[in-house]
Design brief:
Number of strands: 14
Distance between the termini: 26 Å
Number of helices: 12
Order of helices and strands: HHEHEHEHEHEEEEEHEEHHEEHHEH
Helix content: 25-40%
Shape: globular
Radius of gyration: 21 Å
Strand order of the largest sheet: 1-9-8-5-4-2-3
Mean pLDDT: 97
Bound molecules: pyridoxal-5'-phosphate
């Protein structure tokens, strides 16, 4: 068998007639940036999430950058995020001139360890960016309580968690501003780059709407330095088609994860899910001290794997100037050496999952 880590064409095939029509209609319609599909998509996704405002932007990284700008975070300020996440969760702080500060991950959930948050807060701290990594929402009650106590903003990095929930509340609805990505491999992915900022705050929404188009409210009257970062019409039309199926796609991911949970040996660490969370498995990551051996043997069997992520952010070369050292974030460092993702996407078949699980179990049993 030859399996993909993430296969996007199966989903396209299943939506082909609807998708082709949506894209062709945009080309025929003549409006390509911030047109009718973009406006409709913003309404539809705001209603899906249950938020007041949704603003389409160029990508998830820009969404985070503009979110921090909208909160007036800049030079001299500190922004706390997890050491175990994608680079953009911290890069956004650097982009606005602020300093990223890292906290370690929880060894079970891989999410920001909220118990370590307070030790990272000082008089320069302005915001916390919890990252809903791999499709599971952080402990938002605890994070929001700490933020409130210290008068800090919370910006959810929900780029991997569209449709996930925490105690019945959707990811992206529990903070001042939340950011999403429509990068093709995300749970709600376009066929190119795209991103979203959501908020219930009218002033923040107005500011983002200005920032995404060069700081203009009125055409060619630039009130501040902004960005050129919009969701294009073709991506909006594609995302409108996919949004209608999102819950079904996420449910299939959950079904696939449950099958893995049941089939995989307990001699490998499987994803841990808090009972009150709807984890939507953007990725299905397992942890083993024998990662290298398992990954190379799986490759021989036609089963690809991926490492998310090979380096914690505090040890990235780009952040050498922050003067962190090895040992500062032991859980994140250990995870980066032992974690790997196995194939996960809604269209993965039962036969493929069985084949993958069987091979992993066999490799692990052989090693004992
Ligand atoms: C993908 C991702 C981003 C950035 O989104 P882009 O659309 O690729 O810019 C930010 N944070 C996390 C956690 C992500 O997974």
């Amino acid at each position: 068998m030859k399996i993909d880590l993430i296969n996007l064409t199966r989903q396209y095939e299943s939506l082909k007639s609807e998708m082709d029509k949506a894209v062709i209609d945009v080309m025929a319609n003549g409006q390509y940036i911030l047109g009718p599909n973009e406006q409709q998509f913003e309404k539809e996704i705001a209603s899906y999430l249950g938020v007041k405002h949704a603003l389409g932007v160029g990508n998830g990284t820009d969404a985070l950058v503009m979110a921090l700008r909208a909160l007036n975070i800049g030079p001299g300020d500190e922004v706390i995020t997890s050491a175990f996440t994608f680079f953009a969760s911290a890069e956004c702080a650097s982009q606005v001139g602020a300093k990223p500060v890292f906290v370690d991950a929880d060894p079970k959930t891989y999410l920001m360890d909220a118990d370590l948050l307070e030790s990272a807060i000082n008089e320069h701290t302005k915001a916390i960016i919890p990252v809903h990594l791999f499709g599971q929402v952080c402990d938002m009650d605890k994070i929001n309580e700490i933020a409130k106590k210290h008068n800090l903003y919370v910006v959810e990095d929900a780029c991997q968690a569209m449709g996930a929930s925490y105690k019945g509340k959707k990811a992206g609805t529990m903070s001042d501003i939340a950011c999403f990505s429509f990068f093709p491999t995300k749970n709600l992915g376009g066929y190119g780059d795209g991103g979203l900022v959501v908020t219930n705050d009218d002033a923040v929404a107005e500011r983002i709407s200005k920032l995404r188009k060069h700081g203009m409210k009125v055409k060619y009257h630039n009130e501040e330095i902004g960005y050129n970062s919009r969701l294009d019409e073709i991506q909006a039309a594609i995302l409108r088609v996919k949004l209608k199926h999102l819950d079904e796609f996420n449910d299939r991911r959950i079904k696939n994860a449950t099958l893995y949970d049941n089939l995989l040996t307990n001699n490998i660490q499987k994803p841990y899910k808090e009972s009150y969370n709807k984890h939507i498995y953007h990725l299905y990551c397992v942890v083993s001290e024998n990662r290298q051996k398992i990954m190379s043997k799986l490759k021989e069997k036609g089963i690809p794997t991926g490492i998310y992520y090979p380096l914690p952010l505090h040890l990235q070369q780009a952040y050498a100037s922050l003067n962190y050292k090895e040992g500062d974030m032991p859980v994140s460092e250990r995870l980066c050496k032992t974690i790997f993702a196995i194939p996960m996407f809604p269209e993965l078949t039962k036969e493929e999952i069985e084949y993958i699980a069987q091979n992993i179990n066999q490799i692990i049993n052989e090693g004992e």
